[in-house]
Amino acid sequence: MVDKFKGRLKESGLSDNAGKVVVIHCPINILVSRIDGRNAKAIKDCNPDDVRKAFFPFSQYGSIYERTLEPLDSSKLAVGVVSREDIVGAAAKFGGGRKDVSSLLDNLGFKYGDEEVFVTPKIPCDQIYQTAVQSPQQIAESLCANSFPPRPPTEDIQNDDDLKNDFNI
């Protein structure tokens, strides 16, 4: 995923370190709640194509995160705790079978007897956001605010209206 991103930067004539890798962690219990909300809205709006019944988002979680043994190790900082119960509950609710559960537990590094594990992103990243702490809207606003450095004043800016027009405000 990161390699593909860096490749696109190069294709655009930018250096491969021109961008930042940001991980937005959504705990499994919140992911379940969001999918439930999305499904309820889809049913209410008579939009069956928007109903999510598959276990895919949870399998995808297992491809992004891995176990870290030391939650405060600076090289593998834990971004969350995943419980076996959350995984089994998500599987029961969204159609994941034994194979799906077993695969996700393995991908997250669960060992026999573990009831929960600390997880960290598998990929190196520059910044981590937590949906348990900030809403998706707050995260998006923060990303946008941090992505575009303030423009230094120039002689061609006559007043605030010029700035508003430049930035479509």
Low-confidence stretches: 153-158
Main β-sheet description: 3 strands, antiparallel
What best-fitting shape do the alpha-carbon axes yield? Answer: globular
Strand order of the largest sheet: 2-4-3
Question: H/E element string?
Answer: HEHHEEHHEEHH
Radius of gyration: 20 Å
Number of helices: 7
Distance between the termini: 33 Å
Secondary-structure class: alpha+beta
Proportion in β-strands: 5-15%
Overall mean pLDDT score?
Answer: 80
Number of DSSP strands?
5
Helix content: 40-55%
Describe this structure in words.
Helices cover 45% and strands 12% of the residues. The protein is α+β, with helices and mostly antiparallel strands and 169 residues long. The protein has a domain at 19-136. The protein starts with a helix and ends with a helix. The model is unreliable at 153-158 (pLDDT under 50).
Notable traits:
169 residues, 45% helix, 12% strand, alpha+beta
Q: What is this structure, in a nutshell?
A:
With 169 residues, the protein is α+β, with helices and mostly antiparallel strands.
Topology summary:
Layout: H1 2-11, E1 22-25, H2 28-44, H3 56-64, E2 65-67, E3 80-83, H4 84-94, H5 98-107, E4 116-121, E5 127-130, H6 136-147, H7 160-166
Parallel strand pairs: 1-5
Antiparallel strand pairs: 2-4, 3-4
Helix pairs in contact: 3-5, 4-5
